[in-house]
Prior knowledge:
The chain is an alpha+beta fold. It has helices spanning 3-14, 28-31, 65-77, 98-102, 113-126, 129-144, 153-161, 164-175, 183-194, 200-206, 226-239, 245-251, 288-301, and strands at residues 39-44, 49-53, 59-60, 150-151, 196-198, 256-258, 263-268, 272-277.
Amino acid sequence: xxxxAITARIEAAVTPYIGxxxxxxxxxxxxxxxxxxxGMAIVQGNGEMIxxxxxxxxxxxxxxxxxxxxxxxxxxxxxxxxxxxxxxxTGSAFNSIVQLENEKxxxxxxxxxxxxxxxxDMLVAASNRDAMVQELLARFHRLSGDDxxxxxxxxxxxxxATGSRNRALAHFMAAFGNMANPVEDAxxxxxxxxxxxxxxxxxxxxxxxxxxxxxxxxxxEQLVTRENCRRINAVMMTCGHYDNSxxxxxRIGLPGKSGVGGGILCIAPGHGAIAVWSPGLNxxxxxxVGAIALEELVEATGWSVFG
Length: 307
């Protein structure tokens, strides 16, 4: 790969669009983020890292955390995870309550808010709310090789203060018997997991195991089974961008997960992991500039899973 030419191509493609899109202003702490920021990191199996822009700058990973909590839940509970959450795309917004009543409190997938709350509830039940968050942070520290990763307490408090919709989802699921813990305990952990701050460099490195059958190719640690790695990537491909998932697969063709902090994590199986950040979002909550950068990357490398 001529990475110098590839990064120059990406930079030329995104430059006219830097600052476009809308920041997630419904979370006050995110509303103040500069929309003109852009960073990208690509980590390959040999540890080589290619970066652009603000790749060192930490940001709130938000819903990208759901990929990692799902991997933890599959390690704890195996196939039993799917008794409480489905694997189907929704075609609805990330915080929609519409389908929960018809489907008796079982969320469509673990990457929408309702599904992620259930997954967090499972992890809280395995220990407690604070231990669950510490386990997640320890996992990020180990996977990235960087123990500076932490929680943005202002964002966590802001999420909790504006979290009425998430509380409604959790109480609705509790009414159907699909919450094992008190709602506030599960949501305390959920709001904090979404407020984890990471840079593109840290995030791409932490997710590298998902590009190599669940095994970190650098330290050889098996983080999830090969089968569960395939399942996580499949759910990311079909459900990782809410009602924008089909368009993302059409344009980019990689398993991915977006967050309303402006980050996108993508997995190129057999090649590496990619993290991109630009805070301006499209109507579905996916980074506009981030998606453009990823589309250019895939065009230049041929990494789409569809060839």
